[in-house]
Structure formats: C-alpha cells, structure tokens
Amino acid sequence: MNSAIATWAENIVILDESHELHSYDPMMSFAKDELLCKQAAQYNITICRIWRHPNAFILGQQDARLPNAKQAMDWLQDNHYMPIVRNSGGAAVPLDEGVVNISLIFPNEDREHGAYRNDFEKMFQLIAASLATTGAEVQKGEVSGAYCPGDYDLSINGLKFCGIAQRRLLRAYCVQAFVIASGFGKERTSLVRRFYEIAGNGDPQAKHPTVTDESTASLAELTSLEKPAHTSFTKAIIQTLQAHQEHHQQTSAPNSANKLILPEDSEITLLAQQLKKRYSY
Q1: DSSP code for 225
Q2: 179 beta partners
C-alpha cells in the first residue's frame, strides 16, 4: 500500500469514461475537466477521470504560434486527425484509441510556490503504483527526443510512455497525463515530427521539440500488461485507487460521489466553444 497515495485518494471519485469513444471536438474533454474543477472546488472533492479520444491532435500554445501552424493543422485534418490548441501547458500530443488520458482534479488548498511539482508527483505515484505488478520500474525526468518533453516525463528503460501537464484555476486544478498504452511509440513520434516539419517550414528560428523515433514506446512494448494494454492499464489505475479507498474506508466517512453533479452536454459544448475562441491563433 503506497502511503503517499493514501493521503489524497481516500475519498476520490472515479469517473471511468475510457469506453466512451466519440469523434466529437476533442476540446470537449478539456472543457469537461474544467467544469469538473468547479465541482471539486464547490464540494471539496477529488476526482479521477479516465478517458480516451480517437484521432485527435492536441497542440500546445507555442505550437500554434509556429510559422505554418495553420497549414500543419490542415494537413492533420486531411489525415483524419482533429487538431485543437489546449488550455493546459505542454507541447503537441497525438491522441488515439491506444492512449489513456488521466485527469486528477483537486480543490485548491493553501499552496506554496513550486507546489505544482507536488501535483505532478501525485500522478507519478499513481501510475508507478499501478504498474508495480508488471515489475517495470517507472522513472521520471525529461527524455531526450520525446514529444511534449518535460521534467515529469515518465519512462521505462529510458523510453517515454507518459507526459504530464497541468491546468490551474482559482479554486481548483487539474493534473492531466497522456499514457501511450497500446500500439507503437514510433507511430506517434513520426506523426508529431511531420507536424513540426510542416509547422516550422524549415525556419531555424522556429522553436519546437526535436522528436526522434528512439525516444518513445507504449506500455504494450515496455511491460507485461495483458493486451489490449489500454484496457489492462485502465483497470490497474482503478484497482490502485479502489485499494486505497477500501483500506481507509470508515463508515462515518462522507460519500464524495453523492456530491458530484456531472455537467450537462450543453454546458460542455458551450465552454468548449469559448475555449477554442480563447486559445485559437
């Protein structure tokens, strides 16, 4: 039992939406996280939302400023990917059916400068604990050549399989992880590299990550997870959280799930439209 996880997972509300694959605007998923942040703040609850999205391409705000970003986004659409500019940090990330997205949503507390690292640490603890039964040792630290590089790249044997970003609101915050579970890492790196080739237009002043095929792999390639790996990994995340809930359950403890009111589709759609206007370039 990981005691570090126990400090925040005792009454967590788990929303497993990993089976709900829809070809809607991918900004809807980020809008839903933002609305759930309001619920977390209002009712002082912690939420774990697990979701997937077919054929989406999530740009960072710096990516959207590249010289030929519009042409690169058109190229993505021609190749059946839906591009958006996200409202959280980080650089370009492709999403598909083999990528599991985890959103940990917390109410804001009195926080010190640099507390974001503690937030990233919570996601690292959860993912590492969930993969412990495979015998894989999850490491953290930037992986050279990976897309969406950062201090909290998660890797196994030097190959990145997960990146973490954060969205902060006044009264709540969301830590988001994309986990490459099924398929092959090279399929994603080649897509991102081609996007940057088009978006940068060969301009040496265009700043973007240098993406290599040797940097990234999926959990299916790196671990002994039963296939399909995205299903097995999702189950492992849920089981890890539930184990901590059951270990610390008290009959007098409030049921956080009873407080959660899922946002209406109309609310999500409206906010998604607003976010697209705000973060479009």
Answers
A1: P
A2: 100, 162
Continuous H helices in 44-184: 69-78, 116-130
Residues 90, 172 contacting (CB under 8 angstroms) = no
Taking 70 as the threshold, does the pLDDT of residue 254 lie above it? no
257 conformational bin, left if phi > 0, alpha if psi -120 to 50, beta if neither: alpha
- Whole-number pLDDT of residue 93: 97
Cis omega before residue 204 (within 30°)? no
| Residues taking part in catalysis | 148
Distance CA 56, CA 166 (A): 19
Q: What pTM, to 2 d.p., does this model score? A: 0.93
Q: pLDDT confidence of 67, banded at 50, 70, 90?
A: very high
Q: Which domains, from first to last, does the chain contain?
A: 3-264 (3.30.930.10)
CB contact at 8 A, 57 and 195:
yes
